[in-house]
Specification:
This protein is about 20% helix and about 35% strand. It contains 3 helices and 12 strands, in the order E-E-E-H-E-E-E-E-E-H-E-E-H-E-E.
Length: about 140
């Protein structure tokens, strides 16, 4: 079991949070993570303003060793990616947000380089037909 520091990326912001590595499991310092995400821990669960999410049925979420951020992401409907080798963790937008984007029928804005390195944004092709080809190795 080793203590370390991780860079947490959330909503375009980076902050440092302490963590404990237990084999392949990473547990994060509870208070700083919840604070960075805008949540507080109360007897009724995790709260953000007047909205509370009960977590009593998830005892593995917060233990004496810290917070399981993957389990928290599951509770909040947010994807979490952890790279323990590089000491970085990233939280994605809530899946409900992505669902609404998909239902709108509009592609999200993004910027990608061409083979020479010149960057193009999707919005720069507004009013033109665009063919997007996506590839995944799996």
């Amino acid at each position: 079991m080793g203590q370390t520091s991780f860079t947490m990326l959330e909503n375009g912001t980076a902050c440092e949070v302490g963590a404990i590595l237990e084999g392949s499991v990473v547990r994060f310092e509870t208070a700083p993570v919840l604070s960075a995400l805008g949540w507080t821990r109360k007897p009724e669960g995790l709260c953000q303003g007047e909205v509370c999410i009960p977590i009593g049925h998830r005892p593995e979420l917060i233990t004496d060793q810290g917070l399981d951020l993957v389990a928290l992401g599951d509770v909040l409907g947010r994807p979490v990616a952890i790279d323990a080798t590089e000491s970085i963790v990233s939280l994605g937008a809530p899946t409900d947000d992505h669902g609404q984007e998909l239902l709108s029928g509009r592609a999200p804005e993004f910027v990608l380089p061409d083979l020479t390195g010149k960057e193009y944004s999707l919005s720069s092709f507004k009013g033109k037909k665009v063919l997007l080809i996506a590839y995944a190795s799996w």
